[in-house]
Amino acid sequence: MKKLSARRRHPLAAVVVLLLALAATGGLYAAFAPAGKAQADETSQSLTIKEGQKLYSVGCASCHGTGGQGTSDGPSLVGVGAAAVDFQVGTGRMPASSSQMAQIPAKKPIYTQAQIDQLAAYVASLGAGPNVPTKEQYSKEGADIARGGELFRTNCAQCHNFTGKGGALTKGKYAPSLEDVAPKHIYEAMQTGPQNMPSFPDTTMTEKNKKDIIAYLNAVNSSETENPGGLELGGLGPVSEGLFAWIFGLGALIAVAVWVAARTAKAKKS
Q1: Does 10 carry a binding-site annotation?
Q2: Where are the transmembrane segments (predicted)?
Q3: Per-residue confidence at 117, pLDDT binned at 50, 70, 90?
Q4: CA atoms of 82 and 68, how far apart (whole Å)
Q5: How far is CA 123 from CA 40, 53, 65, 235, in A?
Q6: Which of 63, 208, 217, 264 could make an S-S bridge to 73, C-beta 3.0–4.6 Å?
C-alpha cells in the first residue's frame, strides 16, 4: 500500500492521468463525431468522378485526349471547369459531329443531366475552373433589368444584336440567338467564353452584372413584352431595317416615278 501510495504521489502521475483522459476524450469524439456524412459525401463524389471518367473515355477522349490534355482535333480541358462542360454538353454542342465546322451549333443533348453532372465532375477534377452556377446566381429575383440592358448593349449587342437575336460574324461563324436559351447556360457562356465569345469572369463582370443581363434578355424575349416601336422586322437591327427601306422604300419611289412618267407621256399624246 505504501508503494502504491508513493506511485500515486509521483510527479509524473498527473501527466499520465491527463494523457489518459485526453486519449479517452479523443476516442469518444472519433466514435461519435459526424464524420460519417463527410466520408459518405467524399465517396459519392469519387463515384461521380469515376462514372464521368467512363463517359469521357467513350464520348470525349478521341478528340480531347485520354487525360483531357487535348489533341489536334480538340482543345485541352484541363482547367476549363464544370461550367464549360455543363454548357457545351447541356446545349448539345458536344460531342461535335465534326471538328472541321466553322462553328459548332446547338442541338438536342445526347446525355441526361445526371450524366452531364458526372462528366462535369470528372473534367473539374483535372484542374480548377468555373463551377456550375447555382439557381440563385441566374434567377431574375432582385435583378436590375434596366442596368442589364445597359450592360448587354455595351458588351454583347455588337455580336448578338441589341435584343439577343444573334448575328453573322466572319468566315461562316455567327453569334447565336439567345431566345429560348436556359438562363443557366447564358450565365455559363459568360463565365467560360465558348467558341468565338470572350469570357467575362467575375473580375470583369460581377455575378450581379450577369444576373442583370439575364433578367434583361428574359424581359425582351418574353412573349408578354409588348414592342412600343411597332413591327420589329425580326429584331435584327439596322440590316433588316435597311433592307426593308431599300426594297419597299426604293421600290415605291420607282413605282411613283414610272407612274408620273406614264401620266406625262399620256398627257403629251392627248
Answers
A1: no
A2: 243-262
A3: very high
A4: 13
A5: 21, 8, 12, 38
A6: 63
Annotated binding residue 39: no
89 is in an annotated binding site: no
| Set of cell numbers at residue 267 | 398627257
Q: Which three cell numbers stand for residue 53?
A: 471518367
At residue 225, the pLDDT reads: 58
Residue with cell 465532375: 121
141/123 Cα distance (integer angstroms): 31
- Rounded Cα distance, 157 and 216, in Å: 12
According to DSSP, the β-strands at 167-168 and 174-175 are antiparallel
Q: Which three cell numbers stand for residue 263?
A: 401620266
Q: Which residues pair with 167 in a beta bridge?
A: 175
> Model pTM?
0.72
pLDDT in tens, 68-107: 999 998 999 999 999 999 999 999 999 988 777 889 999 9
Q: How far, in Å, CA of 177 to CA of 181, rounded?
A: 8
- Cell numbers representing residue 62 in the block: 478521341
Q: Which domains does the chain have, with CATH numbers?
A: 45-126 (1.10.760.10), 145-221 (1.10.760.10)
> Does the annotation flag 243 for ligand binding?
no
